Amino acid sequence: MIDYTFHGVKIALIRKIKNRESETENPIYWRITYQRKQAYYFTGLKFDENEWDDFLNRKMQKHRKFKESLQSFFEITLRPVIDQLAVNNSFSFEALDALLNNRTTTSVNEAFKKKIESLEMEYSIGNASIYRTTLNALQRFKYYQTLRNRKKNSFNYARKTNTNRKEKTSLISRSTSNSRN
Questions:
Q1: Residues 35 and 76 placed together within one structural domain of the fold
Q2: CB 98 within 8 A of CB 110
Q3: What is the structure's pLDDT at 155?
Q4: Which of 46, 74, 105 is the last residue of a domain?
Q5: How big is the chain by its Cα radius of gyration, in Å?
């Protein structure tokens, strides 16, 4: 249906088979290929093998809305973004994601990675290694924060469980002592 190539960027609409059984419903994706690397964007549609064949090769009324929707998304959104990035010779999957998701802000990690790349392109290897070390320290800090929070939560859960057990034990011992009297 849609197979488009522009400045080394190829767009195709595919049915991605996740397991050997192609008879089950499988999702339909936009496959974007650039420099032998691929990215997949889910369309929201799922078809089995026969229905996918009908979708591609036959003009059926039940597929008309889907085809129009995919075609308009391609013409209005996907194609202009890819053309813009390819013409400026700045195509990357990160830039494509940013434009498709209307992200203009970057995270700290993304900013560090871009700075490292630019320093390496300028052969400032020493500065790039300092930035890389700082980025690794930030990522480790975030990881240890999550571990610390997990430990606190599990400690609080264990303390609550032990408290509940002690209360149940004391209630049982009270009830048995009362029944003996």
A1: yes
A2: no
A3: 60
A4: 105
A5: 28
Buried b (16+ CB within 10 A) or exposed e, 139-148: eeeeeeeeee
Please state, in angstroms and rounded to a whole number, the distance separating the CA atoms of residues 31 and 42.
9
CA atoms of 93 and 170, how far apart (whole Å): 62
Beta-bridged to residue 15, according to DSSP, are: 28
**What domain range includes position 96?**
3-105
CA distance 79 to 66: 18
Query: Do 54 and 125 fall into the same domain?
Result: no
The angle subtended at Cα 133 by Cα 127 and Cα 138, nearest 5°, is: 130
Interaxial angle between packed helices 93-100 and 79-87, expressed in degrees from 0 to 180 and rounded to the nearest 10: 140
Domains of the chain: total:
2
Both 122 and 164 in a single domain? yes
Q: Do 129 and 148 reside in the same domain of the chain? A: yes
Q: What's the CA gap between 180 and 97, in Å, rounded? A: 73
- Residue range 142-170, pLDDT digits in tens: 777 777 777 766 666 556 655 555 555 55
Contact criterion met (CB below 8 Å) for 29 and 18: no
Q: Average pLDDT for residues 99-109, to the nearest whole number?
A: 73
